Amino acid sequence: MSLLNEMSQKAFDLGVPISVHMDVTYRCNERCVHCYLDHDDQGEMTTAEIKGVLDQLAEAGVFFLTFSGGEVFMRRDFFEILEYARRLMFNVKIKTNAVMIHESEARRIRDLGVDTIQISVYSHKAEVHDAITKLPGSFDRSIKAIRFMREQGLKVTIANVLMTWNRHDSDGVQELAVSLGAHYTLDPTITPMMDGNTSVLSLRIAGDELPSVFANPKLVPNMEEFCAPPKPVTDDDMEGYSCSAGHSFCYISPYGDVFPCVQFPLPTGNIRQQKFMDIWNHSPEMNEVRSIKAKDLTVCSSCSHVSSCTRCPGLAYMEGSMRGPSTADCEKSYYRTGVPTANMLRKASQATVSSLVQIRPMAALA
Amino acid sequence: MPETYIARSSAIAARMLAGEMMVMNSMDSTFFTLNEVATAIWRAADGRTSLREIVHAQICEQFDIEPEQAERDAEEFVSELSQHGILLVSDQPLDPQEAAR
Question: Does B17 touch chain A (CB under 8 A)?
């Protein structure tokens, strides 16, 4: 285990929020087709309020701080916030579309000692990228910004969200990342909108197309191990937790709402009304999230994938229960290994029961 | 023997966790944890106070370590962290603002 992993595990065990994702605005200059946010400003925290939150986060032991949005640079005070965060010695990562970053902004980001800039690039083809962002010229502007940042020696990660519109472009984006000296990450997960609207889920690539995504040696170096059937479940596995949400990680919205994760819209408190540490330590919702072990999961506890699945409790919550399965992750486990999940088997058996119920009146008539 | 002055680099992130100081350099993602003595040196690295003064004022008294041993350990520690760009070292006082560039 690396030293970094060791310290992350220590934070998890001690319940220290070592990592926080903070959206400073939901406003955005792009209108991505898959975005889960409402971009209207419903009363963002002021500069002073955000600085106050940052003071509290530093005091709470937060080390890794991700600023995201919306588009962070839609806030005119973003550099002031960034400078303040760096003075408090956070390790800062910024998620941005970068269209507002020019040479001078890139230099300033470098001077402030930002760790990584993550930029969404949907395709290596400008017309596909711009169709997804609905901002003409956004591809050229984002790529130009990446070049500015690389010239400053900044670490850049290109995040490639995969959906129906760009499902054949991951290789092209990966090659583009290499040519720009950027890291590359791929994510085929499209999440429901924060208000529960699931219409964007129609953009998810079909489950049976996932194997072609996985079968990329550049992304998955050890394919055999990655696609191996799940190992027998142990007692230790059943005592394990899904992820760091609520244990050593949380999310803060531009309005001061605190959630276990950016993908877990369970309100646990508002930082305008309570101290961060009061929410972190005493929120009943936060404590409920962190109490859930694999053995407590309603369906997944009987699944052979329980120890290796990427099950997201936030996606499960959006599906109806934070203790339930997350279908998107069930699909990933199934298409990765070829072994059906307990959730899939349950749904198949329910479908059978359901059709029997439908024919019962017919049988009764006979 | 010339004095040594040390300052924290601006590319650094740092936070205490369970009595250990985590330090990470954003330029190359090197990650360290510092023990109590190293943390005291790190905290005192303001660019204006010499390493010798730091060792005597912060280390020898607080941790009851012999000055010669403490100075040797401190020099070794400073050398290692400076190689990773975490501490800036000079034989002249350093302006922390300049060190930040």
Answer: yes
**What is the per-residue pLDDT for A114?**
96
CA A95, CA A66: separation in Å to the nearest integer? 7
Q: Which residues pair with B38 in a beta bridge?
A: none
Residue B98 has pLDDT above 70, yes or no: no
Residues from chain A contacting residue B97 (CB–CB below 8 Å)? none
In chain A, what's the furthest Cα-to-Cα distance?
82
Residue in the block written with tokens 């962290």: B81
Model confidence, pTM: 0.90
Token reading at A88: 């408090």
How many C-beta atoms lie closer than 10 Å to residue A100's C-beta? 15
Contact A213, A188 (CB under 8 A): yes
On chain B, the residues whose CB falls within 8 A of the CB of A14 are 17-18
Partners of A23 in the beta sheet? Answer: A68
Q: Closest Cα to residue B31, out of A331, A64, A219?
A: A64
CA distance B71 to chain A (A): 27
Q: What angle do CA A108, A106, A175 make, to 5 degrees?
A: 155
Would you state the torsion angle of the CA atoms of residues A156, A162, A168, A173, taken in this order, to the nearest 10 degrees? 0
Q: In this predicted structure, what is the pLDDT of residue A362?
A: 38
Q: Between A and B, how many CB-CB pairs are < 8 A?
A: 61
Residues 6 or more apart whose CB falls under 8 angstroms from that of B95 comprise B47
Residue at B50: amino acid letter: S
Contact of A63 with chain B, judged by CB distance below 8 Å, is answered with: yes
pLDDT at B100: 46
CB B10 within 8 A of CB A111: yes
Nearest to B13 among A2, A10, A89 (CB): A89
| Residue B13 contacts A, CB cutoff 8 Å | yes
Beta carbons of A146 and A156 less than 8 angstroms apart:
yes
Locate the chain A residue with the closest alpha carbon to B8.
Answer: A89
Residue A356: predicted pLDDT: 42
Q: Which of B12, B22, B88 to mutate to test the interface with A (most CBs of A within 10 A)?
A: B22
Instruction: List, for residues B13-32, the tens digit of each pLDDT value.
Output: 999 999 999 999 988 888 99
> From the list A61, A63, A155, which residue is nearest B13 (CB)?
A63
Task: Quote the ipTM score.
Answer: 0.87
Distance CA A264, CA A258 (A): 10
pLDDT for residue B101: 44
Low-confidence ranges of chain A (pLDDT < 50): 353-366
Closest partner residue to A10 (CB to CB) among B17, B27, B31 is B17
How far is Cα A146 from Cα A118, in angstroms, rounded to an integer?
10
Mean pLDDT score, B74-92? 91
